[in-house]
């Protein structure tokens, strides 16, 4: 997966260790070998994506793809999504929401804020693995602006 001649880095924001391993395994299984940088809370992920100063300057020349769990220990993934999508330097970064909720209102809110893909984490291992594999295939053909 490449942007314009630049490698895309996958930023994974997921506090559940088991889910994080599962996601990584299935992204790899789909043939995506990009670097995956894991975060287990919202603040450290935002420090990385928007910088400690939250200006977003740090990412203006980066190609990042963000995998975002909505239920994090320190803040809601929706807040993180809103911050990323409202920043001029990061608003074009693709954000994939991964969550256990299938609340219609929440899903709509994520799309309204600019989420690119919304994946509900199913309880069954196989369908979750399958969803991530599809995502991997999607990454492999995706061009980042």
> Which strand order spans the largest sheet, edge to edge or round the barrel?
2-1-3-4-5
What global shape is seen?
globular
Gyration radius over CA:
14 Å
Count of β-strands: 5
* Overall pLDDT confidence: 85
Query: Biggest β-sheet: count, sense, barrel?
Result: 5 strands, parallel
Strand content: 15-25%
Number of helices: 5
What is the helix fraction of residues, given as a range? Answer: 40-55%
CATH topology term: Rossmann fold
CATH architecture: 3-Layer(aba) Sandwich
- What is the CATH homology-level superfamily? Response regulator
Low-confidence stretches: none
End-to-end distance: 12 Å
Structural domains: how many? 1
Helix/strand class: alpha/beta
Q: For the record, what CATH class applies?
A: Alpha Beta
Task: Give a written overview of the molecule.
- With 145 residues, the chain is of the alpha/beta class.
- The chain has one domain: Rossmann fold (3-Layer(aba) Sandwich), CATH 3.40.50.
- It is 41% helix and 17% strand.
- It has five helices and five strands; from the N terminus they run E-H-E-H-E-H-E-H-E-H.
- It has a five-stranded parallel sheet, with helices on both faces.
- Helix 4 (104-113) links the parallel strand 4 (95-99) and strand 5.
- It is globular.
- The two termini are 12 Å apart.
- The mean pLDDT is 85.
């Amino acid at each position: 997966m490449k942007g314009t001649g630049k490698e895309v880095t996958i930023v994974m924001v997921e506090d559940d260790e088991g889910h994080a391993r599962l996601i990584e395994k299935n992204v790899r299984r789909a043939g995506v070998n990009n670097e995956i940088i894991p975060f287990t809370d919202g603040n450290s992920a935002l420090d990385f994506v928007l910088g400690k100063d939250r200006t977003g300057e740090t990412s203006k020349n980066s190609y990042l793809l963000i995998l975002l769990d909505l239920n994090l220990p320190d803040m809601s993934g929706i807040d993180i999504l809103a911050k990323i999508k409202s920043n001029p330097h990061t608003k074009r970064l693709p954000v994939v929401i991964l969550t256990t909720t299938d609340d219609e209102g929440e899903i709509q809110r994520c799309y309204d804020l600019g989420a690119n893909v919304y994946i509900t984490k199913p309880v069954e291992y196989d369908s979750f693995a399958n969803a991530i594999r599809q995502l991997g295939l999607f990454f492999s053909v995706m061009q980042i602006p």
